[in-house]
Specification:
Helix content: 55-70%
CATH topology of the domain at 58-201: Tetracycline Repressor, domain 2
Number of strands: 2
Distance between the termini: 45 Å
Shape: elongated
CATH class of the domain at 58-201: Mainly Alpha
Number of helices: 10
Strand order of the largest sheet: 1-2
CATH architecture of the domain at 58-201: Orthogonal Bundle
Order of helices and strands: HHHHHHHHHHEE
Radius of gyration: 19 Å
Length: about 220
């Protein structure tokens, strides 16, 4: 009878591999499991080997992002919701900086090639709602505006979660999104209020003594 797989072991190995990549440690089979309390056989049990692990790492990053975005509740204000999705995107990157770095490394395949589309799809839906509500001009292309919005979020996430900028730089997100959405037709003052409500204060993280990032209280 086959043993039941423990999701916690799978998550442990993925987090461990991502951390090793970030700290530029060689990710070998034995190094991966060292100190984890699991055997090298676990890599084959859960991933079918190291090649499967690389695919699963990217997939896990998008799986966690999808779950984070799905937790954003829709409101009557679609512009607020767009900003809230951006804040959730940043929060996910700050809480999972190692996996976030791997998510956009095209050198690894994805298990589900459509996973990366989910983020963009949610933004497109919110923009379409904003057009229906008269917040954005009829001629605005939802896909183009969603791509521009994602670019802002991804740029901040890359520069703060895995790059050189301090967390204070997250404050630039709200005015950048306000300018983008006002340019799409929203009334500037109303737009600013909506964005600020949705943006709030994205989850913050700080490096601990071992170089990892933890949630700040």
């Amino acid at each position: 009878m086959a043993r039941t797989k423990d999701p916690a072991v799978r998550s442990l190995l993925l987090d461990r591999a991502a951390q090793m990549l970030r700290t530029r440690q060689p990710v070998t089979l034995r190094a991966l499991v060292a100190g984890t309390g699991v055997s090298t056989m676990a890599v084959y049990t859960y991933f079918g080997g190291m090649d499967g692990l690389w695919k699963a790492m990217r997939q896990e990053g998008f799986t966690r992002l999808t779950a984070r975005l799905a937790a954003v509740k829709k409101s009557a204000d679609p512009v607020r919701d767009l900003a809230a999705l951006g804040a959730a995107y940043l929060a996910n990157a700050l809480e999972n900086p190692d996996l976030y770095r791997v998510m956009f490394d095209a050198g690894f395949d994805l298990e589900d090639t459509g996973a990366a589309d989910e983020t963009l799809h949610r933004l497109v839906q919110a923009i379409e709602r904003a057009k229906v509500n008269g917040r954005f001009r009829d001629e605005v292309d939802p896909l183009e505006l969603a791509t521009q919005s994602w670019t802002i979020g991804h740029g901040l996430a890359s520069l703060v979660a895995t790059g050189p900028l301090p967390h204070e730089a997250l404050a630039h997100g709200a005015p950048m999104l306000t300018a983008l959405f006002a340019g799409a037709g929203d009334e500037p003052d109303r737009c600013r209020q909506s964005v600020e409500r949705g943006w709030g204060r994205p989850a913050r993280a700080r490096p601990n003594s071992r170089g990892r990032r933890d949630r700040a209280s």
